[in-house]
Amino acid sequence: MLLDRSLLQSSFDGIRRQTPDLTRRFYDRLIHLHPQVRLVLSRVAFETQERLFSEGVVLVLDHINDKLWLERTLRRFGARLLAYGATPAMLNVFGDCLLAMLAEAAGPAWSAGVARAWQQALHRTLPLVMPESDRFRARRARRQGTT
C-alpha cells in the first residue's frame, strides 16, 4: 500500500514552520516519558541530534514508499541505536511521543487524515529499525565475551 507522501511532507513542513523548537520539545517529552533515553541521547550533542532528527524525518518521508531503501537505511540506523543502548521499547515510546508532539504542534491542522497518514508511516518504519534486536544483542555479547 502506498502512503500519502505529499500529505506527510506538507504536514511536517507546516509543523516545523509553526514550531521551530519542535525537536527540543519532542526530546524533552521523550526523556520525561522514558528517562533511560537520556543515556542514548547523551552520546551526541543536542545540536547534532536536532539536525539529524529533522533531516532523518525528511529523508524517511522522501522514501516512505521505497521498501528497499527503508529496510536498508533503517536497519543501519537501528544497529547504531542498539550500539548506543537503545531498546525496542524505547522505539514504541518514540513513536507515541512523536505522534503526540506532531498533533500538538499542528493544532487545528491535525486532521483525522493527517493522523492516519502518520500512524501508517510509523507502522511501516519503526519495525524496520530493530527487526533483529535480540540477535544483534546476542552477537554483541558474544564479541564482548559476556554470553
Beta strand count: 0
What is the radius of gyration computed over CA atoms, rounded to a whole number of angstroms?
Answer: 16 Å
Name of the CATH architecture = Orthogonal Bundle
Structural class: mainly alpha
> What helical percentage do the residues reach?
over 70%
Strand content: under 5%
Q: Output the CATH topology.
A: Globin-like
Q: Give the overall form.
A: globular
- How many helical stretches? 8
Total individual domains: 1
Oligomer: single chain
**Major sheet size, sense and barrel closure:** none
The CATH class: Mainly Alpha
Average pLDDT confidence is 87
Please name the fourth-level CATH homologous superfamily: Globins
Uncertain runs are: none
Task: Please characterize this protein's 3D structure.
- This protein has a single domain, classed as Globin-like.
- The chain has 147 residues and is mainly α.
- The protein is 78% helix and 0% strand.
- The longest helix is centred in the middle third of the chain and has 19 residues.
What's the structural blueprint in terms of helices and strands?
Blueprint: H1 5-18, H2 22-33, H3 37-41, H4 46-62, H5 67-84, H6 88-106, H7 112-129, H8 133-143
Outline of the structure:
The protein has 147 residues and is mainly α. The chain is 78% helix and 0% strand.
